[in-house]
């Protein structure tokens, strides 16, 4: 879960650059039927990303009479994401994140809902590079390691508001 602000700038008729800043959140210690109780730990980390996108079917959608407002179409992209523990907040000092940069080729769809809303869904698989030699152990703790990176996946579902 998270909250972000984004900008999608048109580079040409089919290409755009999406930039995004926000916070990814997680809650630890949540019981089966509870949400954010007094013993739960909340964690937030800065999320910075750039994503060049190719909307490959806008002309086809337009020729069929379908909406292409605000890039309503299918896209291929190269998602570059950075998360940095130095810019984070937590209710428990034992919670930390891993400084990392991810590189993920993705496929997705974007559609407009009315005048100001849109939704997106996407999936991709790529590589995450750990910065400063940090990695996770099996218990979720951070320790120095020789691991430089790993396979990663990204699935997103978003609802957006356009001004």
From TrEMBL:
Top-level taxon in the UniProt lineage: Bacteria
Q: What is this protein called?
A: DUF3575 domain-containing protein
């Amino acid at each position: 879960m998270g909250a972000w602000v984004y900008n999608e700038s048109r580079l040409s008729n089919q290409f755009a650059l999406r930039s995004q800043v926000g916070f990814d959140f997680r809650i630890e210690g949540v019981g089966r039927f509870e949400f954010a109780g007094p013993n739960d730990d909340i964690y937030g980390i800065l999320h910075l990303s750039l994503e060049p996108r190719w909307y490959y079917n806008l002309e086809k959608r337009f020729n069929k009479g379908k909406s292409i407002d605000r890039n309503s179409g299918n896209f291929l992209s190269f998602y570059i994401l950075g998360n940095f523990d130095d810019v984070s907040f937590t209710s428990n000092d034992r919670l930390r994140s891993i400084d990392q940069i991810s590189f993920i080729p993705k496929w997705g769809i974007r559609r407009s809902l009315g005048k100001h809303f849109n939704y997106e869904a996407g999936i991709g698989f790529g590589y995450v590079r750990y910065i400063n030699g940090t990695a996770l152990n099996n218990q979720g703790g951070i320790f120095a390691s020789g691991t430089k990176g790993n396979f990663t996946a990204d699935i997103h579902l978003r609802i957006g508001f356009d001004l």
